[in-house]
Known about the structure:
mainly alpha, Hydantoin permease, 16 helices, 75% helix, globular, Solute carrier family 38 (Sodium-coupled neutral amino acid transporter), member 7/8, membrane, L-amino acid transmembrane transporter activity, AA_transpt_TM
Amino acid sequence: MLLILGSSWYASVFLVVNAALGAGLLNFPDSYRQAGGVMIAVVIQAIFLVFVVFAILILAYCSDIKSTDTYQDVVLSVCGRNAQRLCAFVVMTYCFGTCITFLIIIGDQWEEFLLYIAKDVYCKEHPFYLDRISTICVTSFLFILPICFPKRIDFLKYPSMFGVVAILYVEILVFVKYFTYHQPPGPIKTKPDHFIDVFLVVPTICFAYQCHVSIIPIYSCMENRNLKEFSKTISCAMLLCIVTYTGTAVCGYLTFGENITSDILLSYDPDIWVIIAVILIAFKTYTTYPILLFCGRAALVSLWVDIRKMSLHEIEDSERNRRIIVTIVWFILTLLLAVFIPNIGVVIQILGAFAAVFIFIFPGMCMMSAVQNLVDDGIWTRRLKGEPQQ
């Protein structure tokens, strides 16, 4: 019998951070501009972070009730079949859109890289092999597709470590550029143009910190699966995310003001340090795409199995072929859509709404159902009376 060892709590930190830190980081400085300045955005971010962390712990607690290993199965175990079907559909849609965003980012980074190393050729001759479509397609087939097929997600803990390094480098770059960049910034907002503008940062915050879909697969792959160990993982991961997102957003926005773009790296004039960041972000994106594909694939398969009313034997027999087919179709569809969408800003606003569902709606439903089950079982009543547990 083959014994599969899980991830340690500190190795899981890299998986959580790699799932949370990504496309949202590049768009985060621009969200500060939309919200009306640094102070407003930081306050809104702090408020929402309380709910983000609380929702993660609720999901982990509920997953232990029946040892579930995907987000939608957690919802099934405590909220029922209809809620699970809705959840699976939303998870699938969100992961599909996020995968498209990752491929758009890859195209952005390659454009910046080619402008630096071969500006004349790229701008004047524009050969097909340097075209945005070609770079996205070729590099995605080479670097993403081969690592999308495995059945388990924890093998990505090693490339995830490099992904975290890439994000930290971008944070340092933005910080250094804030003190050394010589172009005058555009106007700096200190208050929103309209009160409603303060809520414009909410979709970006939700999208940026949304790792909830990936949390349960990561938790299920831990060597010591319990809330105490997982709390260490979440504490370290969230601390890294807060420092990185806030530092990058503040320095990035104050560097460019109203002139900032939806992708912070595209705001800078290309130099060797920016190009290193571009390469690292591209590498990080290559390793994060499979995590979201894994979660989206699991959601799609759960819907397919439910619709087909497949038996456990049928599910196990067709698992490998189904996994391969879904992976290939998913990859090709996201690739086709990514080459026609111009930037990440609009996509993130849409995905932020879906992310809010994972952070607020489903965890809230799970908490209410779990509490109701405890009350119905009489567990809390016996505890309050000091009676022995059954």
